Amino acid sequence: MASSNFIDYVKINCRSGAGGAGSVHFRREKHTPKGGPDGGDGGRGGHIILKGNAQLWTLLHLKYRKHVKAGNGVAGEGGRRSGAQGEDVILEVPLGTIAKHPDTGQQLAEITEDGQELILFPGGRGGLGNTHFKSSTQQAPDYAQPGEAGMEEWVVLELKLLADVGLVGFPNAGKSTLLSVLSAAKPEIADYPFTTLVPNLGVVAYREYKSFVMADIPGIIEGASQGKGLGLRFLRHIERNSVLLFLIPANSADIRQEYNTLLNELREYNPELMDKDRLLAISKIDLVDPDELVRIKESLPKKLPVTFVSAVSQQGLNELKDSIWQCLNTTAEPTE
User: Fold this and answer.
1) Would the annotation count 335 as a binding residue?
2) Is 79 flagged in the annotation as binding?
3) 211 among the known binding-site residues?
4) Does the pLDDT at position 331 exceed 50?
5) CA 23 to CA 76: how far, in whole Å?
6) Which of 136, 139, 199, 320 sits 20 to 30 Å CA-CA off 193?
7) Which tens digits make up the pLDDT trace of 192-234?
8) Residues that bind Mg(2+), according to the entry (predicted)?
9) Global confidence as pTM
């Protein structure tokens, strides 16, 4: 089977450049028989820099780049000439990328804005030339500083998609169909579980030229937090969503139980997800009769905003957009 182009996890070895050594040199000119020290400083080593790029949405371009090496600084020269700095290496990454230590899991950096630059591993400092060490008692210092060594570490780059709304549901709940109707995204749609193997993003147009970003997260099954199904691989993308939209088909055997199962999987993965705003959408309402919809309404949680939709017959889509937009604006307002 062909490998997916959606890569959200890479592990690479980074080595920043070493600083150049300072120069030990003395001024030698005609008519200046006892020129003083004039050794220049070494140049600093090159940095390893992360830079946000809004045009990227995957780490595919770094998948096969296992070793990244910045340039070393050049040694200083006589005449107080400093050495050239080592060439920096800029790794462009999509927004929502975090850098972590592979063993401890410590977060080293996070990119959330287009054009944002963070030095992941700084280059070594260049050594001072002997001109810095002259004094009234040491007029001819014959030593200079060596350059500092660079840093070499393995680092994990992990992408967590930045979206306003995350679609959460079991396989075949109609998440991809809903996204394809609400936005211009064209996810793969078929009548079998796990059709969606990678997350999809779509921009949903709203009234008065407003819009929000919706993410279709691959289907979650019971036990996903323990690694079943697609496991934890895509649950991380839910962490960055402002609002979680739970999608459950109207023809499910027990809608309340499905909702509780989904909620429990998110809680097991990361309890902080329980603090996010939640909406519930009952999909595929064109497959059940009106009396059944009334019974479903009575069985649902009272405090949870619920919308009944059908992507096929276009029912309830505007109401769903209104509910999402209201929830997003309420979330964005600061609480006193």
Assistant:
1) no
2) no
3) no
4) no
5) 5
6) 320
7) 445 555 677 778 888 888 888 888 877 676 655 555 555 556 6
8) 176, 196
9) 0.69
Contacts of residue 33, defined as CB under 8 A and 6 or more positions apart, other chains included, come to none
- Tell me which long-range contacts 152-155 makes (C-beta under 8 A, separation of at least 24): 152/13, 152/14, 152/15, 152/16, 153/13, 153/14, 153/101, 153/121, 154/11, 154/12, 154/13, 154/14, 154/102, 155/11, 155/12, 155/13, 155/14, 155/99, 155/100, 155/101, 155/102, 155/108, 155/120
* 203 labeled binding residue: no
Distance CA 187, CA 195 (A): 9
Q: Establish whether 308 is an annotated binding residue.
A: no
Confidence (pLDDT) at 2:
37
Q: Is 171 labelled a binding residue?
A: yes
Q: Is 45 annotated as a binding residue?
A: no
Asked whether the predicted pLDDT for residue 332 surpasses 70, the reply is no
Mean pLDDT for the chain? 83
**Domains (range + CATH), the chain:** 9-159 (2.70.210.12), 165-330 (3.40.50.300)
